[in-house]
Amino acid sequence: MKACGQPPYPNLLVIDDEPGIRSMMSLSLGADGYKVRTAADGAEGLKLFKEQQPDIVLTDIKMPGLDGIEVLKRIKSMSPDTEVIVITGHGDMDLAVRSLQLMASDFVTKPVSDQALEVALKRAAERLTLKAQLASYTHDLERRVAEATAKVVAAERLAAVGQTVSALVHSLKNMLAGLKGGIYMVGQGMERCQKQLTDEGMRMLERNLVRVQDLVGDMMTIAKPRQPQMEPVSLKELLTEAQRIMAAEAEGKGVEIKVEYPEGEGPVALADRRMILEAFLNLVSNGIDAAAEVEGGEVVLSTAGNFRGVCLMVRDNGPGLEPEAAQNIFQGFYSTKGAAGTGLGLMVAQKTAGEHGGRVDFVNLPDQGAMFRLRLPAAEQSAGQETQEVAAGEPRGSAG
Fold this sequence. Notes:
Layout: E1 11-15, H1 19-31, E2 35-39, H2 42-52, E3 56-60, H3 68-78, E4 83-88, H4 93-101, E5 106-109, H5 114-192, H6 195-223, E6 231-234, H7 235-252, E7 256-261, E8 268-271, H8 273-291, E9 298-306, E10 309-316, H9 323-328, H10 345-355, E11 359-364, E12 370-376, E13 398-399
């Protein structure tokens, strides 16, 4: 071989059971700047490979003990990027082809000529160079992708913060306007000695203070993780309590609340009673607002369930959900109520349900209105009850 400077990958291992070939290759390749180590059989060659980790391996294909094919397999399993050149006789072309299928970089035939060996080593070096460049490009690409992803995430977070702040400001401005209006009406009533005007201003103040309180509570619920205190909860009792709590709001909006009680004790959920009641009240309030948009508005509360799960249901006869609302109803700060809503109620209910291993879903009813379902895990107490399926559309029971 002709020396032409230091080779780019100088560390070689030659494995051959013929001493003459090992000696010839060692002298020839050493003269060309390679650092050559030799082994007399496959086992010794694998031992040297593990110790020295050469860039390129040249191995005879036919050797006693471990042959070249087995050596190739084991080297590739340990170091896939190592280039292996097999040395074969003229009658071993099938084995040579087999070696190429096993990812050998090339093969040379005996007697090995300097020119053939030089070409094979050049190809192996080129493959090693391409692999190194590819690894460098891949690493650089991964770094660039990571940097770009970090920038995108930061931008999205900033945008989300901006949207949140914008929505909060919008909601708070509406509430402040209501408070200012209430203060003005109280002031005018006191100035003119008109009790009716003063009372109306006080009611306006109270309504908007409640809205501020609700907004703060919803934001705290969304912001922090909570661990529900699980216990058996009678859904039948929650129906009664929800009807009692929401009666005044429903009456003020001209909506009638009805309850369809289940037979017997009814479904029992495994839940945190306080958290689930709050989430259910959000659904009831949402239903009242929907029913208030139509004459003869009505909201029906009911339950359903079996041993696989239970649910609280709110059915209204309002206008139903438009496609846009149906798609965004559980997104924060999305509201169909205009200035009157913050868009957090359903988001809070969904978060609470998720903390219990459940969920909130809804369906538009065929005739009119919508039904929201707060799905929860069933307690053992309700496991044997023959109540209707949670997925059922219309709950049974008697209205009360």
